[in-house]
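S., here's the first fold you wanted:
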Amino acid sequence: MLDQIRIVLVNTTHSGNIGAAARAMKNMGVTQLVLVDPIAEIDGDAIVRASGAAEILDSCIIVSSLDEAVAGCGLVIGTSARGRHIPWPLCTPRECGTKAKQAVANSNSVALVFGRESRGLTNEELHKCNAHVHIPTNPDFSSLNIAAAVQVLCYEMRMSALEGESAEVEQKSANSWGVEWDYEMAPHSDMERFFDHLKDSLVDIGFLDPNTPKQLMTRLRRMFQRTALDKMEVSMMRGILAAVQRKAKVANDVDKNNESGKK
């Protein structure tokens, strides 16, 4: 399980935090580290703070966007320290470990996304996640160092991986719907293409005004991510959208011809 867990740090400012996060990961047996457009470099301070986990720093991947960082992942969970205007599926660190175990058991990679030291993840970044995880800290002193947050979640990943369960419980944990599923969950990149296609289709049929979108796409994104579409389901949905777009084009062409005839 642990080799399918990806730790993603976004715009990290302090190199020491990158090193400390790598140490926390190695403590728990998690090895995949991805940095999204880091402000800090992996310097001597990072290596010192890694304290024996330099190989995680050596093998870490640096990308320019969150989409690149979570590409290929069937489950993306973002850390969030506060409530949002539009509520998103929320889990505890313990529940996060269970969800990750279920996802990996169904042949999916998992990304745990951590935001900036000063302000966490943006709403747009959180909307790319299937769910959010909140660490229930002391409300009078709730600010966690990013490496400490990584430690907490990596610990829960390890505990889920080490849990000894009966074959029956293991089967239920591995299969969210109580049966062996026939297709893998759609990876993040497929879902992003689906959301782009959905938005274009809604514009084509006049349901979505791109000038005043309000929260329509955000709420649709939440709905579809909550259902955890598999690859076949995404393919079917995109086929439906393509058919809708073809019908919309025919209808628009007819309307244009009618208008030309009136003139």
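And the second, which I think is the more interesting of the pair:
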Amino acid sequence: MTSTTRPAALGTARDVDLGTATVRYFENGPSDGPVVVFIHGLLVNADLWRKVVPDVVAAGLHTYTVDWPLGSHSIPVPNADLTPPGVADLIAAFLEKLDLNDVTLVANDTGGAITQILMTRHPERIGGVVLATCDAFERFFPPTFAPLPKLAHVPGFLAVLTQAVRIKPVQRLPIAFGWVAKRQPPPEAVTSYLAPSRHNRAIRKDLTRFLKGVNKRHTLAAAEKLPAFDKPVLLAWATEDKLFPVLLAERLADKLPNASIVEIADSYTFIPEDQPAELTRLIVKFSRAPV
């Protein structure tokens, strides 16, 4: 498998055994700072937050950026439950294993859907949530990516797909990064995101299992339980997003008793790629970190 150098800004790399899975995470920031745990989406990893972590840490927060097993992870997890609720339970196990409390969760894209499920299943260690443009309600996945769960059942499909996205013009298509990032991620980030599933059959198997379990019933069921989550939620939403209209944020705000919406201009879904400085400012303010 091709290895990649991970951004030093993420902090110290560690592996943690969660029982059914071992995941890699990066830790940074003062030991006594408010805790922020980042949750990325499909076919990216902790590197998505490389432009956010440094200034969040500089503001006094303690960060954990994790390679969740969503197709760009480097440690296969053949025994893990990779249904969306199973991944939510894995995040809960991570918080428990590291004994993290009063945590601010920051989630993007598919990670936001999983976080909504987590909020309804394991709210006890959560202090607040930042949902930065993400799947919700019936948009899990959005229409552009909706065929993926069915295509994942086709033998060899993911092997072909992961090889195809090596081509730069393909990376700019809506089915790749074209509609999630207004600014194409740099080559080293694209390699970090796509190399694991391209080169490691076990990672592709993990990705296949996750994709087969994606269904809007999970986010719709979570939405019905969100009114019981009374902790603060910030909905940081990209106004130009092509996959998740601001209407989704408004609907989430109607469900959540303690939510507010902040719109972010000049960005698509990957706000950490397109507008990292603005997202950082919002995270710091939301977490009430010293400045």
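Why I say that: Residues 149 and 214 are 6 Å apart (CA to CA). The mean pLDDT is 93.

Talk tomorrow,
H.
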